[in-house]
Amino acid sequence: MIFVFAFPILSYSQYSNYYMVDVKQDIKVEGKITVNEKIETIDYGALALAEARKEKNALERKIYKDDFQKQNAIEIANNPLKAYDYGEDIIWDVDAAYNVAEGQRKIAKSFGFNYFYAKHKRPNSALYALYNGGWSYVNESNEGVTTILTLSIPQHILTKTETTDMKKKDRQATIENWNKLWGNTEYYLKNYFDLTLGIKNAGTKDEYYLHKVEIKRANVAGSDGFVLTRCKETNYERIIEDFYISLTIDGFYKTSSVTYKGDRDAIDFKELESRKAYLGALNRKLISTVSLYNYKLNND
């Protein structure tokens, strides 16, 4: 299931017209994008292949400590999924013993647990570097596209809310509201997010133009969910945001995100789409394989 919203820019000509598809352009855009009653498609395979060639050339010019490391890097450049295969398992264990100290108890409690073990795959450094600590990673292309991958630990919102310090009536109202949403991720995205296209926050420092919105099915930390894609443009940057989310029927809130962005004066949306096409399969696998195990809920 794919929902796509896009239309030509009419009043704000200072913004990009990339998503105003013209059949005379050599751009193909995926999905069903209706523009002036014509439907076109973006060739993501061609975009990804071009990115792979550029990445391979860039990595070949780097200095490596040995031939094995260089060979791995080139293999990853040709097939980004290899960054998962050659990655490292990262485990965060806030277990019963670790949880004795008050500070650590608060960490587990903030996610809705008494204790938990969480795991993700850290991608190989040939493609992603650590970013701001935690479970976030960054990739910088030679052309100036920045990709930020943020993996998140699943939370159990019901028990997190039940044990929070808010007033009883507010807590109950919050729980009742969430109870309507568990298992209804698509409804949540369509009713709690701004999906209307056009200019936002006009005349303020936060002004941006929302060019395109798309919703697709996705696997999020092992659960069925969706990814909401928003293509937008500020006075300084062009950005594609992928927000992955699953609200499971048993009360888990699972999210992760990927942001592709570049300077508005140097990067166009085609370059962002190319980077997304190149790294997309890897990012989806990293997000789908985040796992939570050996946990105890706050109310167990």
Describe the structure.
The protein has 300 residues and is an alpha+beta fold. The protein starts with a strand and ends with a strand. It is globular, with a radius of gyration of 21 Å. Residues 7-12 and 21-40 have low confidence and may be disordered. The protein has helices spanning 44-60, 67-78, 82-85, 102-110, 157-162, 168-179, 185-192, 269-288, and strands at residues 2-6, 33-35, 38-40, 88-94, 113-122, 129-130, 136-140, 146-151, 155-156, 198-200, 208-220, 223-234, 237-247, 252-263, 291-297. Helices cover 29% and strands 34% of the residues. Helix 1 (44-60) runs antiparallel to helix 2 and helix 1 crosses helix 8. Strands 1, 6, 7, 8, 9, 10, 11, 12, 13 and 14 form a 10-stranded antiparallel beta sheet that branches. Strands 4-5-15 form a 3-stranded antiparallel beta sheet.
Please render the helix and strand layout as text.
Blueprint: E1 2-6, E2 33-35, E3 38-40, H1 44-60, H2 67-78, H3 82-85, E4 88-94, H4 102-110, E5 113-122, E6 129-130, E7 136-140, E8 146-151, E9 155-156, H5 157-162, H6 168-179, H7 185-192, E10 198-200, E11 208-220, E12 223-234, E13 237-247, E14 252-263, H8 269-288, E15 291-297
Antiparallel strand pairs: 1-11, 2-3, 4-5, 5-15, 6-7, 7-8, 8-14, 9-14, 10-11, 11-12, 12-13, 13-14
Brief account:
This protein is of the alpha+beta class. The protein has 8 helices and 15 strands.
